[in-house]
Amino acid sequence: MVRAAVEASPELPALVADAAALPVTDACCDLVIAYMSLQDVDDMPSAVREVGRALEPGGHLCMAIVHPLNSAGRFASLDPDAPFVIQGSYLDSHAFVDTVARSGLEMTFSSVHRPLEAYFRAFEDAGLIVEALREVPVGKPSSDDPRHQRWRRLPLFLFVRAAKGSTTLTEAWSLSRNSRRLELPIHGRECGTRLDSRIDGMSILRWRS
């Protein structure tokens, strides 16, 4: 794939590198695309943290993954109205292997099931603010294969667009413990916050755009 990219556009640099340790400088790009990859990355939080490091403030990550619901369970049968069953815990991450046969070819995918919270915690730690989210089912099936029909009832893919802020929410939460007010720059604007009260030593903030 990288070879094909270089051949198609030799003037553009193409690198093969560890997603958790990208060989690029800080704030060097305004767009990162992760298409059907983060669910197959061993150290997803570090990979997302590297995305946050590489993005300039206001830059965007566009991510597409197999929806975590997909890897959490299985349909009970091939029937179009078959129930979807989750055995065990949706909330626990675990590695799994999926083998898919299509048009006489067999492909094996080694992936990691993670709940939605795992991805969103990674975004939070990397200073990425989610702007849009879409849960995508299979479109109109190209055949009457019941395997396609079943995925019209449940999301098969997850699309997310997130922006890099100037201050991570984790940093803002830490600052709020020691300050009655802080200014949090997001997308080049000042987003003020006001400390309303404290419950059991925890700061309660109301966000004002």
Could you characterize the architecture of this molecule?
The protein has 209 residues and is of the alpha+beta class. The chain has helices at residues 2-8, 44-54, 68-72, 116-125, 146-150, 169-176; strands at 29-35, 55-66, 74-75, 84-85, 94-102, 105-113, 128-136, 157-164, 181-186, 189-199, 202-207. A four-stranded mixed beta sheet has the order 1-2-8-7. The chain is globular and about 50 Å long. Residues 179-209 have low confidence and may be disordered.
Task: Please specify the SSE layout and strand pairing.
Layout lengths: L1 H7 L20 E7 L8 H11 E12 L1 H5 L1 E2 L8 E2 L8 E9 L2 E9 L2 H10 L2 E9 L9 H5 L6 E8 L4 H8 L4 E6 L2 E11 L2 E6 L2
Parallel strand pairs: 1-2
Antiparallel strand pairs: 2-8, 3-4, 5-6, 7-8, 9-10, 10-11
Question: What would the keywords be for this entry?
Answer:
209 residues, alpha+beta, Rossmann fold, 4-stranded mixed sheet, 3-stranded antiparallel sheet, 6 helices, 11 strands, disordered C terminus
Neighbour order of strands in the largest sheet: 1-2-8-7
Bin the helical content. Answer: 10-25%
CATH class of the largest domain: Alpha Beta
Biggest sheet architecture: 4 strands, mixed
Shape: globular
Q: How many independent structural domains?
A: 2
Number of helices: 6
Structural class: alpha+beta
Q: What is the average per-residue confidence, as pLDDT, rounded to a whole number?
A: 82
**Quaternary structure classification:** single chain
Low-confidence stretches: 179-209
Distance between the termini: 43 Å
Strand percentage lies at 35-45%
Query: Can you count the beta strands?
Result: 11
CATH superfamily name of the largest domain? Answer: Vaccinia Virus protein VP39
The CATH architecture of the largest domain = 3-Layer(aba) Sandwich
What string gives the helices and strands in order?
A: HEHEHEEEEHEHEHEEE
Please state the CA-atom Rg, rounded to the nearest Å: 21 Å
